[in-house]
């Protein structure tokens, strides 16, 4: 049974219990990677540089994160926890208390901002194999959240597919193209999202 079938929200960054030294190494690596990212952008995120900055062996970084993409996903996970709390328990319309359709719109609007603010890092994360990109990190719980809201508005439709379809336009590669190459502003993208939500929900909105 999947988490979605069991009704359990997958918490970002959740993993099996680790040894204390493994936890310390993970924290050191992520702190070092965050410093390098802040100082020089994603170009600084080579696993060799991160290992040196964290004062751990390169093999330790490779074992924990596999590659640069895995490290990017882990960095995004660390930043995602605050967002998860916002839509789980924060004020409406992003958090509980607003109609489901309003929460869907607020959620997608917030995702535009999050992706825009982390374009380069998200672009690296999106280069992962599909099983990793869509099965780990932020995507599963974002999808689960949308599925939950859609079930309240259009329960007779394929909400699993619709949730994926609503998330698809918010890929970093597409948003970067729209904003940087086409000159779209964020408000026009949000307006398009609102139209997409209205078409998707129909009478359920």
From TrEMBL:
* Molecular function via GO: DNA-binding transcription factor activity; transcription cis-regulatory region binding
Keywords from the UniProt entry: DNA-binding
**UniProt entry tagged with the keyword Iron:** no
Residue ranges of every copy of the HTH tetR-type domain listed in the record: 23-83
Show the PROSITE patterns listed in the entry. HTH_TETR_2 (PS50977)
Question: Does the record's keyword annotation contain Glycoprotein?
Answer: no
Q: Which residues bind DNA?
A: 46-65
The molecule here is called: TetR family transcriptional regulator
Question: What organism is recorded for this protein?
Answer: Herbihabitans rhizosphaerae
